[in-house]
Write a structure and sequence with these properties.
The protein is of the alpha+beta class and 387 residues long. It contains 10 helices and 15 strands.
Length: 387
């Protein structure tokens, strides 16, 4: 550690000497145990990244990168394993990072950037929440009786973990409304799909941050991208409201828009015939990689819950029966598979207002659509409460 501090001190002096009078920003530091590895620096926009620079760690694990910036930017420092350190770098800023290859992205120190320190706090808190959720999930899988009092305690603790994380994020936004680090807070996710602030009512926080940043950083690309994303989110929520209106207009007996679509043998399968189960209506396509990956992720959930009354009604938006059947057989999709073979003229997609793939609808035992686009941990949580 004394040796590392010696090098860090040297880096600080180096930054002070060369940073003086220079418009360039510098990101430097020590990655213990990472000697010889390459680090990549990427610029992070609201929903995309672009590579800015890369560097090979010296024999002591030290590194330094200089970049020219016209405005503050969100950056990602990535190691070869894909672990990341999130930074918010301002023009002329001199940032110093101390971490190890083993704890890269999970435990690190950052100096020289108050905004980057704020992001570190956000990352640290979310990592603790993820660990808590994973631990509770492990305990839940070890409980044989889902109706036991212990399972009720686990469900409550699971829900409370989400609530605490939500409150922490909102508190950070309120306290840092005019900071660009608040943009990072808005887009933090529990996993690859699910935002902490992903509900329609959370859009108010996106708007409040955008309003504040349009005062403090009116021409920032992050501010402009945030406002554009808000417009897209509002449009999507309006589409979902239209869908809910259609569902409310559906038959009084089932409470859902019924479907009758043939399976691979040509037998018509009524969606309403599954009522009494908890059903996931899943729209996908054999030639759509993202929806294939979503269906592969769904297999674990299906195998876990099918014996408890969970069924999947998977609707493929295809027009080639061989391609559809090959995708089912190769990926071993063993739930109910149906296809109109009429893409792009799908009646089911029109009725359910499907505009992108994959799209899923969760239907409870009473035949009511209770949620949309759930997969992974969030779907499991819903099923634990519905089954």
């Amino acid at each position: 550690m004394r040796r590392e501090l010696k090098y860090l001190t040297g880096l600080v002096l180096l930054i002070a000497v060369y940073g003086c009078g220079s418009p360039k920003s510098e990101i430097a530091g020590i990655v213990a145990g990472g000697e010889g590895l390459n680090l990549v620096l990427e610029k992070l926009n609201v929903n995309q990244t672009s590579v800015i620079d890369s560097v090979q760690l010296d024999t002591d694990g030290s590194f330094s990168m200089k970049i020219e910036l016209e405005e503050a930017e969100l950056m990602i420092l990535k190691n070869p394993e894909g672990d990341i350190i999130n930074l918010l770098v301002s023009p002329g800023e001199q940032i110093l990072i101390e971490t190890s290859n083993e704890s890269f992205g999970k435990g690190y120190k950052v100096e020289g950037s108050e905004e980057s320190e704020g992001i570190r706090v956000l990352v640290e808190h979310l990592n603790l929440t993820r660990f808590e959720l994973d631990s509770l999930q492990s305990v839940a899988t070890s409980i044989e009786d889902p109706s036991s009092p212990q399972m009720d305690l686990i469900r409550n603790a699971y829900a409370q973990a989400f609530i605490k994380q939500n409150r922490f994020t909102i508190k950070y936004l309120v306290e840092n409304m005019g900071s660009l680090s608040s943009v990072y807070a808005l887009y933090q996710k529990y996993d690859g799909e699910n935002l902490i602030l992903g509900k329609e009512q959370d859009l108010q926080y996106f708007k409040s941050v955008a309003d504040s940043l349009e005062v403090t950083y009116p021409s920032s690309s992050l501010t402009l991208s945030l406002r554009a994303d808000i417009d897209q989110r509002e449009a999507r929520f309006k589409e979902e409201a239209k869908l809910n209106s259609l569902l409310e207009m559906a038959g009084e007996d089932t409470g859902l828009l019924d479907l009758s679509i043939p399976d691979r043998e040509g037998k018509e399968i009524l969606l309403s015939s599954l009522q009494g189960n908890v059903i996931l209506v899943a729209f996908w396509a054999s030639g759509h990689e993202n929806s294939i990956q979503a269906m592969l992720q769904l297999k674990s959930t299906y195998n876990t819950y099918k014996s408890r009354g969970f069924e999947v009604y998977a609707i493929s938006l295809d027009n080639n029966k061989i391609a559809w059947m090959n995708a089912m057989d190769f990926n071993e999709f063993e739930w109910i598979n149906v296809c109109e073979l009429s893409f792009p003229n799908s009646t089911a997609a029109l009725l359910y207002n499907v505009s992108s793939l994959p799209t899923t609808f969760l239907i409870n035992r009473e035949g009511e659509v209770v949620s949309k686009n759930l997969l992974g941990r969030q779907l499991n949580t819903w099923l634990d409460n519905l089954l």
